[in-house]
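Z., the sequence and structure:
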Amino acid sequence: MAKPLPPLYALRAFERAVHLESFTLAAQELHITQSAVSKHIKTLENHFGCLLFIRKGHKLTVTNHGKILARDLQSAFKLIEGSCRSFEENRSVLRLKVPTSLMMSWLIDCLKEYKKLEKQPHIHASSVWMDTDFVDFSSEPFDCAILLSNGNFEAGISSIKLFDEWLVPICSPNILERDGSIDLDKHDVIQPSPDRRDWKRWQAATGYAKEIAGLPGQVFDTLAQAASAAAAGHGLGIGDLALCAKMIQAQQLAVPIKMAVQTGDAYYLVMPTDSRKESVIQKFADFLTGYIPDIRLVDSLINWYGK
C-alpha cells in the first residue's frame, strides 16, 4: 500500500518559507501565524524523517534535503497555479474550430456582430482547412466546432443543427449572356475540390442535360476559394447558397442555372456530450441562428431539389 502524502498546506508553507527565506514572511503571505508555519515544517520533517531546516537562534538554513524538496515543489506549484489560471480563463472563453470556407463566407461577420454585443463568453475561433470536417476533442484544444456533416456523429458528441447545405451554380454577372445564362463553350468550370464531388452531386440530383462535372477547369481546395474565383470572372463555380447569399445579394455573384440541390449535409455546432460549457454553447448557437440567411429570398427563380 502506498504511503500517504503529507498535507498539501504543509508543503505549500514549506515551499514559501524556502522561497522567502523566512517563516514570518511565509506566514504573512499565507495569512497564517508563524507558529503554524513552524508546525507545518515539523509535520513534514516527521513525515520524511529528516531535517529540512537547521535552526540556530533566529537564523534558518535550508538543508540539502530541504533544497531538493523545495526545488521540486516550486515546479509543482507553478504547474498547479498555471492550471488554475488556465481553468479560470477558459471559463469565459469558447475555443471554436471552424472550416475555412465557413469562416470566410459567413462566420466572420457573425463574430463581428457578436463582439459588438459584448456577450460572454468570448469566442476564440480557429479557421482550419479540412478536406473532411472533423474534430477530436480528446486531442485538440477546442470546446466546440462547426462541422459540415450528415449528422451521424460518433458516440460522445452532441450536436446542434444550424443550416442545410444547398449547392447552386455561381458565376460573375459580368460573364452572363444577355438572357442571364452562361455559355460553357466560352468559360471554364471551377472545381472546389479535386474529387469534383460537389458538381457530381449537383449533376446527379438535377439531371442537368450538359455534362459539367467532367469539364476541364481550375481546381481549388475549398468552396470559398472557388466562390472567389467565380466572382472574379474565371468561370462557372458551385457554392453553398447560404454562404454565397451575401455576394449574390450584392450582385458580386449570379446564379446562371436556377437549380439548387440539397446535399443531405448540414452545418452543425458540436461539442462533447459531457461539456461543462453546454449552456453557453447553446446560447452561442441561439445567437448564430439569428444570422442564418433565408436562402429562399436570395433568388425567387431558383428550382429546389430537396432531400
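Strands lie at 53-56, 59-62, 93-99, 122-128, 144-149, 157-170, 237-240, 259-272, 303-305. The radius of gyration is 31 Å.

Let me know what you think.
H.
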